[in-house]
Amino acid sequence: MTKLRWGILGCAGIAIRACIPGIVQSQTGIVSAIASRDLQKSQEVAEKLNIPKAYGSYEELIADPDIDALYIPLPNHLHKEWTIRAAEAGKHVLCEKPASLTAADAEEMVAACEKAGVQFAEAFMYRHHPRYTRIKEIIDSGEIGDIRGIHGAFTFSNPGDSKNVRFKREWGGGSLYDVGCYPISAARMILGREPEAVTTHAFFSPEHDDVDMMMSGLVEFSDNVALTFDCGMWAGFRNTIEIVGATGRIEVPSAFVTPTDESGQFIVHSRNERRVETVPFLNQYALEVDDLAYAAWGEKQPNYPANDAILNMKVLDACLESARTRSRIVL
């Protein structure tokens, strides 16, 4: 079987812990090369993970004719530059979330990929897991009634890591970009439409370059439905979505990160009954890699078009503006 040959642009933890193993476990991909601005670092990772080639610059990796696609786990402010450079070199792109720092930047990235005829995908791995297909089937069946609201939370606590890129404002730091983007993208996916307005409140920490260490928000959709969410980098760990219907609700206790079989489960409450639905454990990173590969080969349309990244960034733009100005932002 033909394999999509991946290059990894950087040695970020998410690449080493999650995406590279996902490519290895995928049906379609192999990891052919990795690059770092520190050649010794990329060589060490390549040796540890059995990657054939290591480069000491991103430019060398992009120029490699034996690479078909690039995974970009670089700090957020570098996503735009290296996505465009990858596209211009004819490489497909899987870019870590958030796609960019603004919707305008995302538009440039998507346009560059379209011009070059390559696929672009934002790396929201969770939404490729089949449990969300099952959740949407339950909603569509009417079992929990019309959706009245969604609540999402994604928080963790790591305030003492002073060198963390998440705490650099110019680099696209902050909890909204890092984890708040998940419940927002999930609500858009579940409801199948775009928000109308947002209102948020944030804790901007002077100790952390004034990035949002915690944010709470209201995201308004049509039909009197809203997402309430909170995200944080200085709060106890949570990773949940709850979908509330007129006659029932669905709890997803591990909504975005699913490290074990059991974490793929979700709970349906319907007319005084409770049941646990179990979906087989699957590697979400492998699934997103396969989705891009099949689209790159022209075998299917991607599950989420490149334009989705622009739409999600528009909501993030509005959330940050609302928090900074203490106002409701109409989209």
Automatic annotation (TrEMBL):
Domain GFO/IDH/MocA-like oxidoreductase per the UniProt entry, residue ranges: 132-251
Signal peptide: none
Gene3D superfamilies in alphabetical order: Dihydrodipicolinate Reductase, domain 2 (3.30.360.10), NAD(P)-binding Rossmann-like Domain (3.40.50.720)
Domain (Gfo/Idh/MocA-like oxidoreductase N-terminal) ranges: 4-122
Entry keyword Oxidoreductase: yes
Keyword Cell cycle belongs to the record: no
Tree of life domain: Bacteria
Molecular-function GO terms, alphabetical: nucleotide binding; oxidoreductase activity
UniProtKB keywords: Oxidoreductase
Similarity annotation: Belongs to the Gfo/Idh/MocA family.
Name by which UniProt lists this protein: Gfo/Idh/MocA family oxidoreductase
